[in-house]
Design a protein that fits this description.
Helix content is about 10%, strand content about 35%. By secondary structure, the chain is mainly β. The protein has a 5-stranded antiparallel sheet with strand order 6-7-8-9-61. A 5-stranded mixed sheet has the order 33-34-35-41-37. One of its GO terms (biological process) is protein transport. One of its GO terms (cellular component) is SNARE complex. Keywords: Cell membrane, Coiled coil, Cytoplasm, Exocytosis, Membrane, Phosphoprotein, Protein transport, Repeat, Transport, WD repeat.
């Protein structure tokens, strides 16, 4: 008969109830039941939605500009669409298919945009709503789309294909016209070869009835739309990349694959009037210049007073190896070659007029580069660039980590801005940024938000992220304290990583005291103090630490290392650990192995430190007997105690940064003392050293191969082992013995069960799910703090959870968060007299805990979150009050205890893509939403939650995605977002003049409706393209109701944004607009009725 195990049944019931919506508290003996805390957060307070995306559009592929609305659009290879107006007005949209955007065309001053994608779809976007939506889509089934052209104030879009044909789309109904220009009709019948795909379409600026078609092979055709035949054919024996008109319509210019430009007179098709090779070497014998690289694009812009501008990209000669990509500006006899930092994707010339038949008056060129957006001022000598106001420099050096702080002290942003303003570059254009369309949203969020990004080159950037904007405040270069190695032979010690030796791994920041601490990839820690004064540091304070991992019966090779201490569990007083520091003795051990050497060399010359963050202390881990130092896995700083602590897979080190002394230097196992729950076999670290992994990348299993240790933290390792916890595979004694420090938290709480009052301590979490508590005995404040040692001793308190410890926090008896103590910021670099007065004041730790005013005997709660579960421990009793198994099959990547709606909660992001929140202290599940799968380590490395329901992560190497899990923020988001479309009068058309009108020299108009409409051209083949209604919905219908229409149609069709009642005249229209179905039925009738008024859009 099988034995019945009642304990297993109870365990099963507990596990089953953990997934229920109401989390049950742990059972306690009578008399020790936890007091009931009133929790205010409910599920209805939570809702998940993306808010804004910041940064440079990743892998850009297309560019467009609305010269009236002053809005810029950028499309990307992943189907994203980014729209930019005035600084602070930005918008991100995404095509569902994810296909690359090959071209964008604004419906100028209409609040609409057409996108052409690599999957042969066209989409019409309505920009009249804060979150643009697709109104219509058209999928070409039999032909590939290569080029689109929409004439100004026209509703007929020309679409060129790979087969060389041109189709015409009505942008009102997004249907094909029966009018088609076939390639074999366009080229000469005698031509035996196919002319190639259509690479250009444009109408003659002076005659809408003449269409210029450029084929890739080098043939250009001027097509008469009315007579449906070619007027002229221009042939050149080099492939065409782009074509541009002179505004008078008598000449056009072509750019070719051999680096030449050809200028043609419209009426003489035999040969070009002029052939220019802008970068070709002119040969003496009158021979053709040597061929150059292709000119990918050319623009031809005229001015009233002076020579026209010819602007081109590419065309450099082949012998300019290693030369950077260039934009060439030819103006009269001068040619300026402007070098770019990255390859040019596209460029556009910004002109004063939207009319193609007027003098263009170019004033700027916007250049879309692979990793930057540059705007060149054409009106100033030397063509200076405009200072870019958008936050597009996030990726200036690859982001390796980031932190997010909402509800910071109000004086922080002005302080950072004032020191950052001095770092601004000079030599920019004096003019205002010309892309200034749209309006700002009404920001209802009034609290300051700061994002800090750490980068591969060792820089740290502070960003103002208040409301939905982002602006860089200040940049700190941490590499300034180190000697730069000039060549590979000069860097014998930096081989812990192949590249980026200064890359930032962890940032610990105290906003109240402004103390900043960073841990870098070369096992270095730097502590910074904020100052508004410039100082010159004669000698950079430095400590070197031997953090050794060795379990041997023999004596440790490190003489100064304190022996493992027996950790008393009862009331006995533990033995204090004496302070220790390690002299820099760069030496080799007897067997020639590298020993006592740090990975980086600190500068020994005086260092000028500008206002802002100034180095207080540099700490470096050193090589030990041929073993490189292992990368730092956790870090914490406390300004009130004057301590910094960090750990890795070897152990933990604590430093007093005021006295510049090492207080604690223990292997992880030594922290346990005699309470070690694991049987660990003694071994030397040299025999089978476990590689540290690349730290920033190797976030998953700990299954790194030795080569991984040398990978740059900027590389994205795609790992298939995200689905299971990294700790779940830690089974071997070898891996257990490499238990790393994964979480550190300074606090004032109960360190032992017998404690009657809270005291300063450090809580340490490890990758094996252990929490250990270290007691801190701090000397009095003032001068005594600098003279007496800080006594550090393990308390004997050990707690256990399943999975690596990620986060710890503390609550008082009422359930309010107890933040770590801090010292408020004050200027340290002040004259001596003032300083003496300051020192006389005994500065005690500032405790902002609500419990400070309460009885000492009141209990506290420790909130501990691991990769697998969360526990709330009652202190000082150390009973588990509440427990929640967060995930069984996956693991938590990030857990944060955050303030929200005058309460607090635990927010978690799992590797399986779920975002979850739990109430505190009872750990009731409040939100569980599948958000995004963990596709790469960049997301794992950068995801973070902060207060007031805010979170962010790096969605691509160049962009930050912000999201909210607060229902209130989701509701207010619409108000906070900026508006892209603003009602602007279209400029008046150019005056034709008396003589031009008399002799017919002005612009010729064309009744396109008569040519392309169904009545004259018939219906297009149904199999050619499929119409797909967009998800724009009724909001899109309302926004699009006023398109290219006359005043009468506008009066009848406009529906006020706020839904106000229209007058009697518009009642019928309002009723029609209130229902999308009714509107779609009548749209065609209305269009026909008002066709002469150029009625637009569906």
């Amino acid at each position: 008969m099988r034995k019945f195990n009642i304990r297993k049944v109870l365990d099963g019931l507990t596990a089953g109830s953990s997934s229920a919506s109401q989390q049950q508290p742990q059972q306690h003996p009578p008399g020790t039941r936890e007091p009931e805390i009133q929790e205010t957060l409910q599920s209805e307070h939570f809702q998940l939605c993306k808010t804004v995306r910041h940064g440079f559009p990743y892998q850009p592929s297309a560019l467009a500009f609305d010269p009236v609305q002053k809005i810029l659009a950028v499309g990307t290879q992943t189907g994203a669409l980014r729209l930019f107006g005035r600084p602070g007005v930005e918008c991100y949209c995404q095509h569902e298919s994810g296909a690359a955007v090959i071209q964008l065309q604004f419906l100028i001053n209409e609040g609409a945009l057409v996108s052409a994608l690599a999957d042969d779809t066209l989409h019409l976007w309505n920009l009249r709503q804060k979150r643009p939506a697709i109104l219509h889509s058209l999928k070409f089934c039999r032909e590939r789309v290569t080029f689109c052209h929409l004439p100004f104030q026209s509703k007929w879009l020309y679409v060129g294909t790979e087969r060389g044909n041109i189709h015409i789309v009505n942008v009102e109904s997004f249907t094909l016209s029966g009018y088609v220009i076939m390639w074999n009709k366009a080229i000469e019948l005698s031509s035996k070869s196919h002319p190639g795909p259509v690479v250009h379409i444009s109408d003659n600026p002076m005659d809408e009835g003449k269409l210029l078609i450029g084929f890739e092979s080098g043939t250009v055709v001027l097509w008469d739309l009315k007579s449906k035949k070619a007027d002229y054919r221009y042939t050149y024996d080099e492939a065409i990349h782009s074509v541009a008109w002179h505004h008078e319509g008598k000449q056009f210019i072509c750019s070719h694959s051999d680096g030449t430009l050809t200028i043609w007179n419209v009426r003489s098709s035999a040969k070009p009037v002029q052939t220019i090779t802008p970068h070709g070497k002119q040969l003496k014998d009158g021979k053709k210049p040597e061929p150059c690289k292709p000119i990918l694009k050319v623009e031809f812009k005229t001015t009233r007073s002076g020579e026209p501008f010819i602007i081109l990209s590419g065309g450099l000669s082949y012998d300019t190896v290693g030369r950077r990509p260039c934009l060439t500006v030819m103006h009269g006899k001068s040619t300026a070659v402007l070098e770019m930092d990255y390859s040019i994707v596209d460029f556009l010339t910004l002109c004063e007029t939207p009319y193609p038949n007027d003098f263009q008056e170019p004033y700027a060129v916007v250049v879309l580069l692979e990793k930057d957006l540059v705007l060149i001022d054409l009106a100033q000598n030397g063509y200076p660039i405009f200072e870019n106001p958008y936050p597009l420099s996030i990726h200036e050096s690859p982001v390796t980590c980031c932190e997010y702080f909402a509800d910071c002290p109000v004086d922080l942003i002005p302080a950072l801005y004032s020191v950052g303003a001095r770092q601004k570059r000079q030599g920019y254009s004096k003019k205002e940024w010309p892309i200034n369309g749209g309006n700002w949203g009404l920001g209802t969020q009034s609290y300051p938000e700061i994002i800090i990004t750490g980068h591969a080159d060792g820089s740290v950037k502070f960003w103002d992220a208040s409301a939905v904007t982002l602006q860089v405040l200040y940049k700190l270069k941490t590499s300034k304290v180190f000697e730069k190695s000039r060549n590979k032979d000069d860097r014998p010690n930096t081989d812990i990583v192949d590249e980026d030796p200064y890359a930032i791994q962890i940032i610990s920041w105290c906003p109240e005291s402004r103390m900043l601490c960073i841990a870098g990839v070369s096992a270095h820690v730097i502590i910074y103090r904020f100052s508004k004064q410039e100082v010159i540091t004669e000698v950079i304070p430095m400590l070197e630490v031997r953090l050794l991992y060795e379990i041997n019966d023999v004596e440790s090779p490190e003489g100064e290392q304190a022996p493992p201490l027996p950790t008393p569990v009862g009331g006995a007083n533990p033995q204090p650990i004496p302070p220790q520091s390690h002299p820099s003795t760069s030496s080799s051990s007897s067997d020639g192995l590298r020993d006592n050497v740090p990975c980086l060399k600190v500068k020994n010359s005086p260092l000028k430190q500008s206002p802002g963050y100034q180095t207080e202390l540099v700490i470096q881990l050193v090589w030990v007997g041929g073993e490189p130092p292992q990368q730092i896995t956790s870090l914490a700083v406390n300004s009130s105690y004057g301590l910094v602590v960090f750990g890795n897979c070897n152990g933990i080190a604590m430093v007093d940064y005021l006295q510049k002394a090492v207080l604690l230097n223990l292997g992880t196992i030594e922290l346990y003392g005699s309470n070690d729950p694991y049987r660990r076999e003694p071994r030397s670290p040299r025999k089978s050293r476990q590689p540290s992994g690349a730290g920033l990348c190797d976030i998953s299993e700990g299954t790194a191969v030795p080569e991984d240790r040398c990978k740059s933290p900027t590389s994205d390792i795609k790992d298939n082992s995200f689905s299971r916890s990294r700790s779940s595979s830690v089974t071997s004694i070898d891996k257990e013995s490499r238990e790393a420090i994964s979480a550190l938290h300074f606090c004032e709480t109960f360190t032992r069960k017998a404690d009657s009052s809270p005291s300063p301590c450090l809580w340490v979490g490890t990758t094996l799910g252990t929490v250990l508590v270290i007691a801190l005995n701090l000397p009095p404040g003032g001068e005594q703090r600098l003279l007496q040692p800080v006594i550090v001793s393990p308390s004997g308190t050990i707690l256990r959870l399943k999975g690596a410890i990620l986060r710890m926090a503390f609550l008082d008896a009422t359930g309010c968060l107890v933040p770590p103590a801090y010292e408020s910021w004050r200027e340290h670099n002040v004259p001596e007299e003032k300083d003496e007065k300051e020192k006389l004041k005994k500065r005690r730790p500032v405790s902002v805990s609500p419990s400070s005013s309460q009885e000492i005997s009141e209990n506290q709660y420790a909130v501990i979150c691991s990769e697998k579960q969360a526990k709330v421990i009652s202190l000082p009793t150390q009973n588990c009050a509440y427990k929640q198994n967060i995930t069984e099959t996956s693991f938590v990547l990030r857990g944060d205890v955050v303030a929200m709606s005058n309460s607090i909660c635990l927010a978690c992001f799992c590797a399986n893509g779920h975002i979850m929140t739990f109430s505190l202290p009872s750990l009731r599940p409040l939100l569980d939403v599948y958000y995004l799968p963990l596709t790469n380590m960049r997301i794992a490395r950068t995801f973070c939650f902060t207060n007031n329901g805010q979170a962010l992560y790096l969605v691509s190497p160049t962009e930050i995605q912000r999201l909210t899990y607060s229902q209130e923020t989701c509701e207010n988001l619409q108000e906070m977002l900026g508006e892209l479309f603003t009602p602007v009068e279209t400029p008046e058309a150019p005056n034709r003049g008396f003589f031009k009108g008399l002799f017919g020299g002005g612009a010729q108009s064309l009744d396109r409706e008569e040519l392309f409409g169904e009545s004259s051209s018939g219906k297009a083949s149904r199999s050619l393209a499929q119409h797909i209604p967009g998800p724009g919905g009724i909001e899109g219908v309302k926004g699009a109701a006023s398109g290219v229409v006359g005043e009468l149609a506008r009066a009848r069709l406009a529906l006020d944004e706020r839904g106000q009642k229209l007058g009697d005249l518009e009642e019928r229209t309002a009723a029609m607009l209130s229902s999308a179905d009714a509107f779609s039925k009548h749209a065609h009738e209305m269009m026909l009725k008002y066709k002469d008024k150029k009625w637009y859009q569906f």
